[in-house]
Design goal:
By secondary structure, this protein is α/β, with parallel strands linked by helices. About 40% of the residues lie in helices and about 20% in strands. Helix 8 packs across helix 9.
Length: about 280
C-alpha cells in the first residue's frame, strides 16, 4: 500500500517556504506522493473548513514539483464543476509536463453551494458539468486538432488545437461516496474516498473491486490524524490495507509548521509497518 502526505497549504502554517520544506521532506522520507486541496472562496464565518486561507492547489503542486524529482503530486480534490475545463486542462497538462509525469488528478463535484454561487456556476448542474468537463479535458489532451460538442459547459470547440499534450496520461481518481460518485470512479482510473473508517470503507472497497478487479484501478482513502498516537495511526493504516486500499493519504491536523513537519516524520515511522 502506498502512503501519501498532505502539504501545508491551508491555514496559518501555509506559505511558500512551508510548502517547499514539506515537499522536500516528503520526498526524502519516501512518501509516494504529496497532496493539495481546494476551496476558492468561502462564506465569512463558515464553521468548515476551519480556515479560508487556501493556496491554489495546482500552483501549490507546481511549486512543490520545482523542489522535488520523484514524489507524485495529487489533488484531494479539485472541484471540477467550479472551473472551466479548458484553462484547467492547460494548467494540468503544463504541470504534468513540468513534473515529468508525476500528477494524479483527484476530482469531486463539491458540496458548498455558496461557493458555486460566488463563481456563477449552477450548483444543481455540477454532476453533469463534472462528467462533461472530464470528457472535454480528455479530448483536448488526446486529440489534435479537436472537436468537442458540449451541452452543460459553455464552449465552442471546432477543429481547434491545445498544446502541449501531457507527456503521459493523467490518472483521474474520483472523490465522494454517493452512488453517482462511485459509478463515475468506475469509469475512470480510481476512487479517492475520505472521512471513512476502515469499517465503513470496507463494503465500498468490495463493491468497487467486484466491478474493477484490474490493478490499474486505484482505491485510495484520505485519513486525518491528530498527531497524538502514532501507534494508533499505524494500526489504522494497517486496517485500511487489510480492507483492500491501495493508497492512503494522511493529513496531519497540526496548525503550526514545526508541529506539522514533526507529525509528518511520525507518519513516516507509522507507515513503515504497512509499506510493501
Amino acid at each position: 500500500m502506498r502512503i501519501g502526505i498532505h502539504l501545508p497549504q491551508i491555514g496559518r502554517k501555509a506559505g511558500p517556504d512551508a510548502i517547499r520544506r514539506a515537499a522536500i521532506q516528503a520526498e526524502e522520507l519516501g512518501f509516494a506522493d504529496a497532496w493539495s486541496s481546494e476551496h476558492i472562496i468561502l462564506p465569512s464565518g463558515a464553521h468548515y473548513p476551519p480556515s479560508a486561507l487556501f493556496y491554489d492547489p495546482v500552483l501549490t503542486l507546481t511549486w512543490a514539483a520545482a523542489f522535488t524529482t520523484r514524489i507524485g503530486l495529487g489533488t484531494s480534490v479539485l472541484v471540477l464543476p467550479m472551473r472551466h475545463p479548458l484553462p484547467l486542462a492547460k494548467e494540468l497538462a503544463t504541470l504534468q509536463n513540468l513534473s515529468e509525469g508525476r500528477l494524479i488528478l483527484g476530482a469531486g463535484v463539491g458540496w458548498l453551494e455558496a461557493e458555486f454561487a460566488a463563481l456563477g456556476v449552477p450548483f444543481r448542474e455540477r454532476g453533469r458539468r463534472m462528467d462533461e468537463g472530464i470528457a472535454m479535458m480528455r479530448a483536448v489532451w488526446s486529440e489534435d486538432p479537436v472537436t468537442f460538442r458540449s451541452r452543460w459547459v459553455p464552449a465552442v470547440i471546432e477543429y481547434m488545437r491545445m498544446l502541449p499534450k501531457p507527456v503521459k496520461p493523467i490518472p483521474i481518481w474520483i472523490g465522494g461516496s454517493s452512488d453517482a460518485a462511485l459509478a463515475r470512479a468506475l469509469r475512470l482510473d480510481g476512487w479517492h474516498g475520505s472521512r471513512l473508517s476502515p469499517e465503513t470503507a470496507a463494503p465500498i472497497v468490495r463493491r468497487l473491486r467486484e466491478k474493477r478487479p484490474d490493478p490499474e484501478f486505484t482505491i485510495s482513502l484520505r485519513s486525518s490524524w491528530d498527531g497524538k498516537d502514532d501507534a494508533a495511526l499505524g494500526a489504522r493504516l494497517a486496517a485500511f490495507a487489510e480492507v483492500g486500499a491501495d493508497h492512503i493519504l494522511v493529513e496531519p491536523a497540526e496548525r503550526a509548521l514545526d508541529d506539522w513537519l514533526r507529525a509528518v516524520e511520525w507518519v513516516a515511522r507509522a507507515a513503515e509497518g504497512v509499506q510493501p
